[in-house]
Write a structure and sequence with these properties.
globular, mainly alpha, 6 helices
Length: 129
């Protein structure tokens, strides 16, 4: 349970980082691509790690973890999704780098339906460029 508590703290840190990144930009702040890429890679790595895959536990242990800590994969998945939609025109900067990690994330049953990239948007942009 100690590791689960640490995981809960990491989810809180990811959410705080997401809030900071989503803050409105003004003339003195700029979009820093590397910080956003680091967030996505860190969040997806966290979400896909073995100890969070609750389906690998007995139903009793899984129930106790979910009752106490919730399913952290789901919360992290929603945060990743929210951050993706906050990227606006910067989404193109993440293709193709983030495709592999996102596909890995979608293999997890509890998060697969959360993340949907409208690839037709990127196809249209590719032909315009």
């Amino acid at each position: 349970m100690v590791n689960t508590c640490i995981h809960r703290i990491l989810v809180h840190i990811l959410v705080c980082r997401a809030i900071a990144l989503k803050m409105p930009k003004n003339s003195h702040t700029e979009f820093i691509l590397q910080i956003w890429k680091t967030f996505f890679h860190c969040a997806i790595s966290f979400l896909t790690q073995g100890p969070l895959q609750l389906q690998n536990f007995s139903s009793n242990k899984r129930s106790k973890i979910v009752a106490r800590y919730k399913d952290m994969r789901r919360e992290t998945g929603f945060e990743i999704r929210s951050m993706w939609f906050n990227l606006g025109q910067h989404k193109l900067d993440f293709i193709p780098d983030i495709v592999g990690p996102v596909l890995e994330m979608t293999l997890i049953p509890e998060t697969g339906g959360l993340f949907h990239i409208n690839l037709s948007h990127f196809e249209r942009k590719r032909y315009v460029m």
